[in-house]
Amino acid sequence: MTGLRTVKIGEIDRIHILGRTGKVREPLPLFFNGSGIEIRVTGAELWIDLETDSDNLEPWVAYEINGALMGRQMLLPGNHSLCLFRNLDPNEVKTVRFYRELQAVSEDERCRVLVHALRLDGEFCDAPKYERKLEFIGDSITSGEGSYGYVDDTVWVAMYMSASVNYATMTAKALHADLRMISQGGWGVYCGWDNDIRHNIPSVYEKVCGLATGPANEKLGAQDPYDFKDPVDAIVVNLGTNDNSAFNQPPFPDPDTGICHKQNRDEKGNFVPEDIRKVEDAVYDFLKMLRKHNPSAHILWCYGMLGYEMTMPITKAVNRYREETGDQNVAFINLPNTEKDEYGAHMHPGARSHEKAARVLTDYFRNLWNTDETL
Amino acid sequence: MTGLRTVKIGEIDRIHILGRTGKVREPLPLFFNGSGIEIRVTGAELWIDLETDSDNLEPWVAYEINGALMGRQMLLPGNHSLCLFRNLDPNEVKTVRFYRELQAVSEDERCRVLVHALRLDGEFCDAPKYERKLEFIGDSITSGEGSYGYVDDTVWVAMYMSASVNYATMTAKALHADLRMISQGGWGVYCGWDNDIRHNIPSVYEKVCGLATGPANEKLGAQDPYDFKDPVDAIVVNLGTNDNSAFNQPPFPDPDTGICHKQNRDEKGNFVPEDIRKVEDAVYDFLKMLRKHNPSAHILWCYGMLGYEMTMPITKAVNRYREETGDQNVAFINLPNTEKDEYGAHMHPGARSHEKAARVLTDYFRNLWNTDETL
Amino acid sequence: MTGLRTVKIGEIDRIHILGRTGKVREPLPLFFNGSGIEIRVTGAELWIDLETDSDNLEPWVAYEINGALMGRQMLLPGNHSLCLFRNLDPNEVKTVRFYRELQAVSEDERCRVLVHALRLDGEFCDAPKYERKLEFIGDSITSGEGSYGYVDDTVWVAMYMSASVNYATMTAKALHADLRMISQGGWGVYCGWDNDIRHNIPSVYEKVCGLATGPANEKLGAQDPYDFKDPVDAIVVNLGTNDNSAFNQPPFPDPDTGICHKQNRDEKGNFVPEDIRKVEDAVYDFLKMLRKHNPSAHILWCYGMLGYEMTMPITKAVNRYREETGDQNVAFINLPNTEKDEYGAHMHPGARSHEKAARVLTDYFRNLWNTDETL
Amino acid sequence: MTGLRTVKIGEIDRIHILGRTGKVREPLPLFFNGSGIEIRVTGAELWIDLETDSDNLEPWVAYEINGALMGRQMLLPGNHSLCLFRNLDPNEVKTVRFYRELQAVSEDERCRVLVHALRLDGEFCDAPKYERKLEFIGDSITSGEGSYGYVDDTVWVAMYMSASVNYATMTAKALHADLRMISQGGWGVYCGWDNDIRHNIPSVYEKVCGLATGPANEKLGAQDPYDFKDPVDAIVVNLGTNDNSAFNQPPFPDPDTGICHKQNRDEKGNFVPEDIRKVEDAVYDFLKMLRKHNPSAHILWCYGMLGYEMTMPITKAVNRYREETGDQNVAFINLPNTEKDEYGAHMHPGARSHEKAARVLTDYFRNLWNTDETL
User: Fold this and answer.
1) Do chains C and A touch (3 or more CB pairs under 8 A)?
2) A319, A351, A352, C236: least buried by Cβ within 10 Å?
C-alpha cells in the first residue's frame, strides 16, 4: 500500500456510476443491487474505501476485473478498505467494476454501502461508455434471490441475493449496455406476496431509493425525488409474481389503517374480477408513471420466470394502456418458466434460469435495436 | 417376406391412429404431418403397404422403432411396400410408429398417402395408450418447415418439412401424450403471409382435412365435417406469424372476387387499427369455434418462435374472449424466438429452436396437469 | 422424370468418390459405411440408379443435400431408382452426398450396393475438393453400431449401424476433410470379441474390402489388393475394444483348425502376460503394415469410447514401435468413455458420445495441422 | 456477535480437515489450494478466526454453505475474523466448508493461512464423512491457474488461482470423496516449464508441504516428512505439461550449481532421446515413490488438458513401471485438451475445460469403483 494516493470518490471524473444515484456523491451511496462504480485504471494496485452499516441484513459486495468476477464477500458494519487488485502490470489498463450484491433493503434502516475513496498507484483512464442504457424494475427475481445458495436453503437472508448471477446483469453485459436496477423481494405492482398493499414498487419508483428508509438513508438522499433527466433506452419491468402469490395467501391487516387486505379467488380457483382488476389498474397506472418520466424509453413488461398465471391480466392492462394512450412503444413478453432442475435457493431461479431469461431478453433487444452481435 | 400374413388396415383393432381421421379407414388416409399409425407387435418382420399420389409436392414419411427414428424417405406416386423392420427377435414386442412428414397440402390435389395393410409374421399386442391428448394448430412452424435442410436453402419444397423434428411432436413425446396436428405453411388466423384472406386456418378447421382438395381427397372424406366426439385435453394454437407478415407484403388480389386485400402499417410502422382489428377478431372468433367443438379442452395460444410482433394483438383478443365469454380455460404464452444460430432451412426454426419451444410447452403442461416427470 | 438424362457412373468425371474403391467403377461398389459419392449439380431433379443384394443384412443408405441429412432408408435386393431431390431451383448448385450406412459385411456374401448411374436435368459442376484426407479404421464403434436405435434395443441388425451419426464422419466434416472408413463390428487388432482370431482387421486391410467375400464381391474387386497410391494425411485407428472383450469371453474353437483360442486373465483379473503380448504384437505389426502403405500419414491410435482397459497395452506397443523404428509420426490418445446417458442402442456409443469423440479428434487435428477454424 | 463462544481449532473433534496437514493443529495451517476445514453445525451464526501473512502472493480463500459457493476474497497480512454465515435458522444443521484458493507458494516465504478458532452460537454435529479419498498431484492446472480471470489476462498473480473452479474439486464432489491436492504452477515431474530442474514435484512430495519454505513455514511443520499413515483410495497425477514446455524454452542456469539445463528437440522437432528419457525416468521414479507411500492406492496418471505431446513418453514410463514392478494398479488416461472457447485466463483451462476433465475422471472412478450415481 506504499505509494498509493487516495482520491475521493467525488473528485473522480473518469468514472462510470452504475445504478440510480441522487445528489449525494461524496460519499457515494450504493442503494440497489447492481449499484456500483466502474473505472479503467493503470497501476499495479487498487483499493476501495467503504463505509457500511446494517443490522440484520448485512450488505454483500462483488467485484470484477476486466469483466471476470474476482471476489464476493459480506461487509459487516464499519469502515473497510478492500484491495481490488495488486501486483498487476502497472502499464496495462484494467477495467474494474465494484458493486453491491444485496438489494435495496426496506426492512433494515441501518443498511447502507458508501464509497468514500479509491486508492491507487496508477491513473484513471476514460471510463467505459455504453451506447445503450437499460433499467430493470422487479421483485425478488431481479434482486437475484436464490441465485446463490443450495437448492434446499429456504431462509431469507442477505447472502442468497446478487447482481452477479442475475438475468438483468447478464442481459446488460451481452448487449454492452449500462444498467440500473430497482427491485425488492416480495413486492408487486399492486401488492406484496402477503397482500400487504404498501409493498408495491410504483410507490417508491419516483424517489431515488424509496426502499431505503430511516434518517441515515434520508440524509443520503434516498427519499429525494429521483431526477429522471438521464434517459434510458429501455425499461424492463418484471413484476406480477408476488401479485399472483397474494391470491394464495391469508389476508393482511394493514398496521397503519387496521384494514384487512386480501386478493381472492372464486370457487373455481379463478381470480375474482374486482381483485384482479386492482392488479390490472396498477399495471396501467405504473405504465403511465413510467412513460411520464421516460418519454422515449421502450417499455417491456416481461413475466413468467416463476409461473405464467398473471400473463392474461398483465397483457390486458398493457393492451388497455396502449389503446387508451396510443402509446405503442410498450410491449410484453413471457420469460421462460424456471424448470425443475433450474432452481437456485428457496425455489427461486438459479443460474441456468437467469441465463435462459437473459438469452430471451438479449435476443429481444438485438432485434429491436437491429444490432448484430451474438451472445 | 415368406411367411408373412397381410392384415388390412381396417381390420386391425389393436392400433393407435395418430392425427385426425374421417370415416374412411380402409384404406387409411394420412392427411397431416404427424398423421400415422402406431402398433405394438411381436415377430421378426413387419411391412406396410401404401398407396401414394402427388404432383409437385411428393409426400415424405418417417418411421420409428421403439421411439427411435429409423428411416425417412420420399414416396413418389404409386404403390409401395416398405419393410419397417426385419430379423428382430420374434418374441420381443416392438413399438412401431409410421407417419407422414409432409404437411397437408393445399396446392397439390393429387397429394395423398393411404395405408392399405400391414404384413407381419407376429401378432398385434395392445396398442400404446396415452393418458393425454394434444391438438396443435399452426402454420409452417408446426409443419416443421425448415426443420430439415441446410440453413441457406430457400426453396419451398416438400422435403424440408417434418413431424420428426418438430416442437409439437417433441412436446407430445415428453408428455407421453397423443398428438393431432392441423397446420399449413403460409397460413394465418386471419390471412396468409401474402394478404390472401382465403388462407386462414379457421376456414378449414371444421372439416376433416379442409386443406386437401380435389375429387380424390373428397372421396377420402377430407372435406367432410370433422366429428369432434373424441375430446382432446389441450389445444395449442401457434398462429399469428403469417398475419404479421401480411403487414409487410404487397396487396393480394383475390382471384375469386377481384378485391385487393392488404394489411397496412401507419407512417410510424405501427399496425393500422382497423387492420389489426381484423386479426384480433379472427383470434376471438377462432377461440369461439375451438371452444364450441372442444368444450373441456384447455386452449393455449402460443406465439413467438419467429418474432414477437403479434403478442399484443393476440393477447388483446384472448383477453376479450375470456372476458366476454367468462371462459377462463384459455391462456397465452410466448414461445422463445429463434435465435441466429438456431435457424433451420429458409429462416425457419431449426432443431434447437424446436427443442427450446418443446421445453417451454412441456413445462407448461406439467405444471397445468401437475405431473411430475422430468424431460 | 421427363427430361432427365441418364449418365453412367463410370462416365462422370466431376465426382468425388468417398471410401475405398478398387478397379471396378462401372457399376461403382460402395463397400464400407461412409462409402459413397459426392457431386455438385445444377438442375431441378436428381436420381440415382442402384442395384443391391443381401440376405439377412440388408444395406441401408442415406443422403444429404448441401450437407444436411435428408433421407435414410433400407434397400432390399433389387434395382432401385431413388430420387435424391426434385423441384429445386434449376440454376442453383446443389451439393449432394449419397452413401452407405451399413458397414462392410463379413457375414452375408450377397450383401452389396452398386451405383449404376445418375439421372438429372442439370449439369455436373466441379466436385467438392478436400485439402485433407482421413482414414478411420475400427470396429463396431466406427461402424456406428447403435448410433440409431432405442437404448434398450439389443438385437444385432443392419438398421442400427450408420455413417450418418458417426464420430468419424463428424470429425471429417468439421475438418472439411475427405474420409475413408474400414471397420467391422466385433473385430479387433488381434482377435474378435469372442476370441475368434480370424476376426482381426489387419488381415483385411491390404485388400480393397477383404470383409466382403463370395463370388459376387470377388468380381467387384473386393478381394483385390488395395492400391495405396492415393495417400491420406492421417490414419485414425480405433481398435482394441474387442481385444479387451475377448479376455472376458469363453474360448473360441477355430472351425478351420479345431484349435481353441482364449485370452486369459490371471486370478487377480489382470491380463495374462503372454496373452496381452499377442495384442501388443498385433498393434506393433499393424503399425508397420500401415506405415508400409502410408509412408507420410500421421497415424493416431485412439481408444476409450467403450472403456479404457486396453490403454496400457496399446500405448506400450505404440511406444515400442516408435522406439524400434524411429518413426515418431505415430501417436496415441484416449477418446472419452461413453457415459451412462450417452449410450445408443445395445450399449454402444450414442449420438452424444460420437459428438464428444469428434470434438476431441477435431481439436487434435486442428492443432496438428495448425488450422484455425472453430467447430 | 454477542452470545458466540470461541472454540479453538485444535479442540474441535467433530471437524473434517481437507488437504494435507502435519503435526501442527493449533493453529491449523492451510498449505495447499483446497486445504481447509469442513464442519456441520447448528446455530444462527458462525465465524472463523484466521491469521495470514504474505508478501507478493496474498492468499485468497473461499467458503461454501451446504455445498454452494458463497464468498471468495483476498486476505492481506494480519488477523481476520470472517463471518461465514449469520441469521440462519438456529436449529438447522449447516454444512460449511472453508478453504484456501491459492496454491502452496514456493516464491513467497511469508505466505501462510492459519486457522485459529471458530466462533458460533450453535453446536458441532458430526462432520461429513467420505467413503473415498482422492489425492491430486499437479501443476498450474491443478492449482486452478486461470480458472478465474478474463481470457486475455496474462499476469501471474494470486487471484487467478482457485480450488473452487477446479477439476479436482469437481471430481471429488461428484464422487462424494475427500480430497487432497499437491500442486505447483510451472513445475513438472522432471523439471519446470523453464528447464529449472529444481522445480519437480517429486522433490517436495514426501514433505508435508515442501513448497512452503522459510522459518515461519518450517515452524508450522511444512518441511517435516509427511506421515502417510492415512491412506487414499486413488492418486491422480496430472504432470507433464511443464516438462513439455521446457523443450521449447531457453536453457536455465541453475543458480546453485551454475550448470545450464536445457531439454532439447532434434532438427525435426522431436524430443532428443536422452532428454526425454529424463522425463520418463522421473515418471518411473515418481511412481515408485508414490507406491512406496501409498501401497493400496490406485494411481492414475492423467494428462492432456493443455496438449497431448507428452502422452507417449508418459505412457512409456508407466508401462515400464508396470512391467518391471509387476504393479498393475497404475494406469494412464488422457484428459481432453482445452479447446479454443474453453480457455480461462492466460491460456489456462477455464471453467468449461475443468468441467470436461471432471466428467472424464468422475466416469473413470465410477467404473473403477463400480458406483452407480450419475453426475
Assistant:
1) no
2) A352
